[in-house]
């Protein structure tokens, strides 16, 4: 994503996904695009920010509630992507769920 997401007033939740990829694309880019499109249609989805260099990727998705996060985790297409991530695309990853209680934005 190329912009900072404008989220509503807290509280809401952030899911932080940090990962190190395996070599090659192996369909990763196409699936990642599909997951962003699908997540955006999920009830409670507030937005997403993502950055990756050659060593580390970090994606932060924002959600209205823990139930919305649970529904996304249980989405059947997302489960397929999760399994492929474990078997094909990631050397390792970490997933953290946080409650956002305060926020500040700056724009020029």
From TrEMBL:
InterPro entries: ABM_dom, Dimeric_a/b-barrel, Jasmonate_Hydroxylase-like. GO terms for molecular function: monooxygenase activity. It comes from the Bacteria. SUPFAM superfamilies: Dimeric alpha+beta barrel. Residues 12-84 form the ABM domain. Gene3D superfamilies: 3.30.70.100. Keywords: Monooxygenase, Oxidoreductase. Pfam families: ABM. This is Antibiotic biosynthesis monooxygenase.
